[in-house]
Design goal:
Layout lengths: L1 H15 L4 H4 L10 H21 L23 H21 L6 E3 L11 E3 H27 L3 H5 L12
Antiparallel strand pairs: 1-2
Helix pairs in contact: 1-4, 1-5, 3-4, 3-5
Amino acid sequence: MLTLLADQRALLKVTARGLTDAQSRTRSTVSGLTIGGLIKHLARGEREHAATIRERDENAEFDMNAAVDAYALNEGETLADWLDEYDRAAADYDRVIAEVESLDDLIPQPTAPWQPEREWWSVRKMALHLLRETAHHCGHADIIREALDGQSTMSAISGDMDWGDGLGE
């Protein structure tokens, strides 16, 4: 599971390769999503998931105020800083997962407007949720990058290999 998550993290970082801060803040589709914002969101998500597992707080509530700029790479924030934070958060998350007694341990989830009743998820479900979330946003980032400058993740990792029939697009 962590190997697949590491693969998705690496693919996400490929979408940011060579971007300036301005490019990482650029909306290239009708969506408000940007590559910098997605990396910031996922870095925070890794931190939040690790804290939820560590703390196991049965009274936790999702912080809606913190979510206001969750997808925005704000002035004064840099892509490089958030990529570094993403790496640190990922390493911490992986340590937390490695240290749990069992992937079947049940963890209380923060309540939120969309989830007003307390739910208990296994560590396994939480890790799979993070994997799905990361893969989901990798797709967003790939489309955003392709619209920015034509680079697809597949072409970036294959050294701009000529795919002939467009399979690498």
